[in-house]
Structures are given as structure tokens and as C-alpha cells.
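Figure 6 in text form: structure in, sequence out.
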């Protein structure tokens, strides 16, 4: 069975959920093999192996890890040349998409970005599914040339532990051109930690919209009682009430948690595009005609400043 390369997204060796999703998807197409850039491949081999990777290609050279995306694209092209994989999967992050585009050019391959599903195509190759125009159309495509390069949207594929033990780590002798090293990373600063899970990886997300009037305290209190991440509508972030990085929707992040709570959010199509695949959706809105109620599992018609504190109190009481 041909290998399927998965570029590992990690923070100082901690593998992100998007990589586990990509490994799960890769197992449908062939034999998943992880490509780990930077220090920490050995430490990550267990989690990568448990999620299906048989091999971890470790690229520790500072020439790759300390530069921007270009060297990673070159190393992936080198691995595609050496191993002829069935596909290369990357996360649909800004870096992931830029690396994917460079890789596709270097290997004369077809590229699909923001896929929400992958499967073996009839007659060979890889079939991808994209959800476009705010989720109103589903596009199915098959890459017709080269080694399919696919970026996967976060939270599109449920993570499965498809593997056995730890993956075998294999060092890669990276050949990086001078041109690829033109831009070097000089400093990395970690954002002040909020203590909440990351928005794209959280099992529960509580989001606030214009209906909060800028007061996110009840949204944050409910989120904290549930161990949830906090999201926001574009109206809320455009008003400066919450950081842009928290925007859920077509032009923000896509989330697909077990539970999504929308408080004071009307349910515009652009917002839905980023949360409609959540497993259970709850909305609190004082307008019974709000469009968000068309897609909810549970709807509460009421003032969020009354409903959210009551819910928070009850959750805290039950947790003891
Ligand atoms: C190209 C494009 C891209 C976009 N991308 C995004 C995107 O990524 N994400 C996104 O969210 N939007 C996006 N938008 C904007 C989107 O169209 C909506 O304008 C936006 O989602 C509205 O945000 P909202 O629901 O918070 O505000 P509103 O639509 O104003 O809704 C506020 C809701 O709060 C309710 N409410 C008010 N007070 C209370 C209260 N006290 N208690 C309970 N309910 C209350 C109201 O009944 C109302 O339903 C995009 C728009 C365009 C054109």
C-alpha cells in the first residue's frame, strides 16, 4: 500500500488535533506517514503511531525549522520524489495552504484546499469534498495530475485511533536551496494563555454576538463552567468586543465541536458556514424569528443576560 504523507502541525512537539484528523483521513487512502519538522519527533512518535502513522520522517535540520514555509515545501517535494506517496495531506492553516501550493507547483500536482472529506476515488486516486459558498454547495473533485496535495479543514474528520504502537522515526537528510532560506524566523512569541481550550480544537464552544452589547462576561462564565472555548460573530469582533482570532464563520475559523452555544447571534449564513457541522447546537436569542433557530437542536427564546447566568449557575451546582 502506498504511503500518504501528513505534515505534522505541532507546537514545541505537542501534536495538534488537526494532524490527528489528517492521519485518520490518510488511513482511508493508504499507509499514513507523518512528516515532522523541528525538534520533538521522537516524543511525538507514540501519539502519531496510535493515530495511524507507521513512519515519522523527522526533519530536524535548523535550515528547515528556522525558516518560513519555503524549506518545508522543498523537503516535502523531496519526500514525494523519493517515496511516490498516494497523496500529501496538510492542515488548512495559513502556513499549511502556502506550503501545499508551493509543493503542488514543485511536483506538478493537483491541489485541493479546504477539503472537508477525502476518500479513495473510483478507478484510483483521491476524491475530495469541499463545502463552498458558506456551505450552500458541496464540490466533489478528483485530482487528475501528479500526487494529490490536499489541505484539510479543521474539525472535518472525526479523530480515530487507527494505529498500533509507536511509529518508527526515520531521519531525513533535507536538501534545502539558498532561495528557500531567504526568510528566517527571528523570534517566536507565545500569545498570553487564556486558560481556555483553543477554539478550533475545543469540544464545546460558547459564542457571543451583537446581542451581548459588548459584555462577554456571561458568555465567558458559561464557557468556563463547561470547560469551553469562546467564539464570536463577526459583528462582535468588528465592534472590537472580542479578538478577530475568535471569529467563527466564513471569514473566520470553522469549528465542529460536540456542543456549540450561540448567544445573541442571529444566524447569518456566513456565521453558519463556520459552525453548522457542530454535533449539537443550542441558541439563546430574544427574537423567536431569528434564523439561528432554523438549525438548532435546542433553542431558548430569552435574554442572554438572564438565561446564560442561570445555565452557568445550574451547571456549577451540578458539578458540585
Ligand atoms: C463576505 C462576508 C463574510 C462574513 N463572514 C462572517 C463570519 O465569518 N462570521 C460571522 O459571524 N459573520 C460574518 N459575516 C457577517 C454576517 O453576515 C452577519 O452580519 C453577522 O454574523 C451578524 O452577527 P450577529 O449575529 O452577532 O449580529 P446580528 O445579526 O445583529 O444579530 C444579533 C442577534 O442578537 C439577538 N439579541 C439582541 N439582544 C439580545 C439579548 N439581550 N439576548 C439574546 N439575544 C439578543 C437579536 O435578536 C439578533 O438575532 C460576513 C458577512 C459578509 C458579507
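Output sequence:
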Amino acid at each position: 500500500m502506498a504511503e500518504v504523507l501528513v505534515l505534522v502541525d505541532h507546537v514545541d512537539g505537542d501534536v495538534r488535533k488537526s494532524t490527528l484528523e489528517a492521519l485518520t483521513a490518510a488511513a482511508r487512502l493508504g499507509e499514513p506517514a507523518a512528516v515532522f519538522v523541528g525538534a520533538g519527533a521522537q516524543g511525538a512518535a507514540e501519539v502519531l503511531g496510535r493515530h495511524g502513522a507507521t513512519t515519522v520522517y523527522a526533519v530536524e535540520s535548523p535550515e528547515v525549522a528556522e525558516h518560513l514555509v519555503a524549506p518545508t515545501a522543498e523537503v516535502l517535494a523531496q519526500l514525494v520524489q523519493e517515496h511516490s506517496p498516494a497523496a500529501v495531506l496538510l492542515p488548512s492553516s495559513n502556513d499549511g495552504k502556502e506550503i501545499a501550493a508551493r509543493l503542488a507547483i514543485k511536483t506538478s500536482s493537483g491541489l485541493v484546499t479546504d477539503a472537508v472529506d477525502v476518500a479513495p476515488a473510483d478507478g484510483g486516486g483521491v476524491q475530495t469534498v469541499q463545502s463552498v459558498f458558506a456551505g450552500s454547495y458541496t464540490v466533489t473533485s478528483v485530482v487528475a495530475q501528479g500526487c494529490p496535495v490536499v489541505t484539510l479543514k479543521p474539525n472535518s474528520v472525526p479523530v480515530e485511533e487507527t494505529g498500533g504502537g509507536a511509529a518508527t522515526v526515520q531521519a531525513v537528510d533535507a536538501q534545502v536551496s539558498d532561495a528557500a532560506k531567504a526568510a528566517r524566523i527571528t523570534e517566536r512569541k507565545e500569545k498570553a494563555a487564556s486558560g481556555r481550550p483553543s477554539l478550533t480544537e475545543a469540544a464545546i464552544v460558547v459564542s457571543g454576538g451583537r446581542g451581548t452589547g459588548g459584555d462577554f462576561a456571561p458568555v465567558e462564565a458559561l464557557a468556563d463552567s463547561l470547560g469551553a472555548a469562546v467564539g464570536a460573530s463577526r459583528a462582535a469582533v468588528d465592534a472590537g468586543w472580542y479578538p478577530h482570532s475568535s471569529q467563527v464563520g466564513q471569514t473566520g475559523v470553522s469549528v465542529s465541536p460536540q456542543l456549540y452555544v450561540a448567544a445573541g447571534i442571529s444566524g447569518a449564513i456566513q456565521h453558519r458556514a463556520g459552525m453548522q457541522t457542530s454535533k449539537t447546537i443550542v441558541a439563546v436569542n430574544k427574537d423567536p424569528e431569528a434564523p439561528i433557530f432554523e438549525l438548532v437542536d435546542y433553542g431558548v427564546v430569552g435574554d442572554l443576560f438572564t438565561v446564560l447566568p442561570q445555565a452557568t449557575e445550574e451547571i456549577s451546582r451540578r458539578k458540585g
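Caption detail: The pocket of flavin-adenine dinucleotide is lined by residues 209-211, 233-236, 247-252, 264-266, 268, 270-271, 274, 284-287, 290, 303-305 (CB under 6 Å).
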